[in-house]
Amino acid sequence: MTNHFIGIGKYIPTETISNQFFEEHQFYNEQGEILDQNNATISHKLKQITGIEERRYARKDQVTSDLGYMAAAKAITNANIDAETIDYIIFAHNFGDVKHDTIQSDMVPSLAARVKNLLKIQNPYCVAYDVIFGCPGWVEGVIQANAFMKAGLAKRCLVIGAETLSRVVDEHDRDTMIYADGAGAVILEASTNNKGIQAHLSASYANEEKDYLFFGKSYNSEKCPNTKYIKMYGRKIYEFALSRVPLAMKKCVDDSTYNIDDISKIVIHQANEKMDEAIVKRFYSLYDLDVPKNIMPMNIHKLGNSSVATIPILLKMIMDNDLENHQINEGDAVLFASVGAGMNINTFIYQF
Predict the structure, then answer these.
(1) Sign, CA torsion 254/334/164/10
(2) Rounded to an integer, what distance in angstroms lies between the CA atom of residue 332 and that of residue 283?
(3) For residue range 295-307, what is the model confidence (pLDDT) as tens digits?
(4) Spatial CA neighbour of 302 closest among 49, 52, 126
(5) CB within 8 A of 332, min separation 6: which ones?
(6) Spatial contact of 22 and 41, defined as CB atoms under 8 Å apart
(7) How many CB atoms lie within 10 A of CB 57?
(8) Each residue of 151-208: pLDDT tens digit?
(9) Confidence at 265, pLDDT banded by 50, 70, 90
(10) Is 139 helix (H, G, I), strand (E, B) or coil?
(11) Beta partners for 183?
């Protein structure tokens, strides 16, 4: 038995934030020193490396669970099902609900419970819980839902990935320009024709890698002495991802019934354009192959890095033919992959 997506939904916030938005920011380095480069140069280099030109922020009156609810409602509508028939709601995020202009994360009750409430689901046996797994959280939620269904514990699952990273960034750190907000969701149920999830793999590296992404103090210690924000060691993450993610992707393929030539698309977490390109190039080099044309769709240029939301949003855009030169057709095998805080890696093969 395989399990497949019967509905996909996304919510892309309406507030478009261009790179020019940051021109008045005062950026500092880790030592608390003002950066020598002007902000126009910083923005130009950011675009060269990450590909990001714009990102989306949630409205001031929205929080992460609101975004997740809207994506979930669209997935339910797309699946044309009764929400009361959902057995599990799995909500992947990392920072909970953080209201605009506040610094406190709110995770009680769980965001999944809040979405269940907003969906007005009365069934007490619809179990709602959250997954905190870094950027690979949505992929991990899909893998968990698949396991529940294979074990006979569920027949239908809703998996949500949503985040408002704009609420947890240090305005004095240029990495702030990478992050974005958004939400995506899918409904899974058993397939009658062997479509769906064919193989999967997850891994956690929690030795020195544990602190590559972390919560740390502002680079402007005088203005923000006690508040902590999302921080990362970009070079270490890049090196880790390049060395570990291609190997995980290869193991997933090699342990499945698929060959590398069977893969039609690679849908990868939208973290950094150059890093993703390097990962895919290294992956194909493990098979002594060149990267096929149009194998890796991307939307980071206009949407930035919204953590757990990037993959389901990207998938929905492909399915809706919103990306030029990128379609998924019946029979295509697609490799999904993600990497993020933990450090965690996961991947799965999906037959459409």
Answers:
(1) negative
(2) 19
(3) 999 999 999 999 9
(4) 52
(5) 264, 265, 351, 352
(6) no
(7) 23
(8) 999 999 999 999 999 999 988 888 999 999 999 999 999 999 999 999 999 999 999 9
(9) very high
(10) helix
(11) 11, 162
Taking the C-alpha atoms of residue 35 and residue 172, their distance in angstroms, rounded to an integer, is: 10
Prediction pTM value: 0.94
Alpha-carbon dihedral 131, 340, 306, 72, rounded to 10 degrees = -30
Segment 243-253, tens digit of pLDDT: 999 999 999 99
Residues ≥6 apart with Cβ < 8 Å to 108: none
- Let me know how long the chain is: 352
d(CA 243, CA 222): 38
Residue 38 tokens read as 């002007």
SS3 36: coil
What are the structure tokens assigned to 209, written together?
């890698």
Residue 206 corresponds to which tokens in the numbers above? Answer: 């929690």
Give CA–CA dist 4/331, Å, rounded: 13
Distance CA 29, CA 174 (A): 8
